[in-house]
Amino acid sequence: MIGDRIKQLRERKGLTITELAVQAGVSKSYLSHIERKLQNNPSLQVLSKIAVPLDTKVQVLLGERDEGHQQAGDGRFAQEWMDLLRQVIAGEADQSEVVRISERIQAQTRRGAKPLDSLDNAAK
Questions:
Q1: Which of 5, 15, 84, 110 has the smallest CB count inside 10 Å?
Q2: Residue spans per domain, the chain
Q3: What is the pLDDT of residue 120?
Q4: How many CA atoms, within 13 angstroms, populate the side-chain half-sphere of residue 71?
Q5: What is 2-67's CATH number, 3.40.50.150, 3.40.1440.60, 1.10.260.40, 3.40.50.700?
Q6: CA distance 61 to 77
Q7: Residue 75: CA atoms inside 13 Å, Cβ hemisphere, count?
Q8: In what residue span(s) does the HTH cro/C1-type domain sit (predicted)?
Q9: Could you please report the per-residue DSSP string of 60-102?
Q10: What is the C-alpha to C-alpha distance for residues 119 and 74, in angstroms, rounded to an integer?
Q11: Which of these, 9, 6, 20, 7, lies nearest to 75 by C-alpha position?
């Protein structure tokens, strides 16, 4: 279960096992063992290291928090996006702003930017 969550979050971030291992400071083989469920009880210290580059919390990796509230680092942008959409629905925001941000994200994604990079740039 922990391995499945790590793999899912890693793939959402567009990271390879090697990239995540380097960024987290854990061995590639150990990370692979976690993802393939050969190691089912990694220490909290290891999970803390893995959580940082995934922009998440150990609680999410352990399944103690709903991933819908913290999705691999896009939580800060997802909340801003949801707030903007609520304003649009309530008639308090300009819909053209939503369209502009959406078009910018799509253009950046077509140019090869990762989705999270697109959201980061659109929020600026």
A1: 110
A2: 2-67, 75-123
A3: 46
A4: 11
A5: 1.10.260.40
A6: 20
A7: 15
A8: 6-61
A9: HHHT-S-GGGS-TT-HHHHHHHHHHHHHHHTT-S-HHHHHHHH
A10: 8
A11: 9
Q: Give CA–CA dist 124/120, Å, rounded.
A: 7
69-117: per-residue pLDDT in tens? 444 444 555 556 666 666 766 677 666 776 777 676 666 666 665 544 4
pLDDT at 3: 92
Q: What pLDDT digit, counting tens, does each position of 43-65 carry?
A: 888 999 999 999 998 888 888 75
Q: Which residues, in sequence order, are CB contacts of 63 under 8 Å at separation 6+?
A: 1, 2, 5
Closest CA to 18 of 7, 29, 9: 29
Which residues lie closer than 8 Å to 36 by C-beta, 6 or more apart?
3
**Inter-axis angle of helices 44-51 and 28-35, to 10 degrees?**
100
Question: Quick one: DSSP state of residue 26?
Answer: S
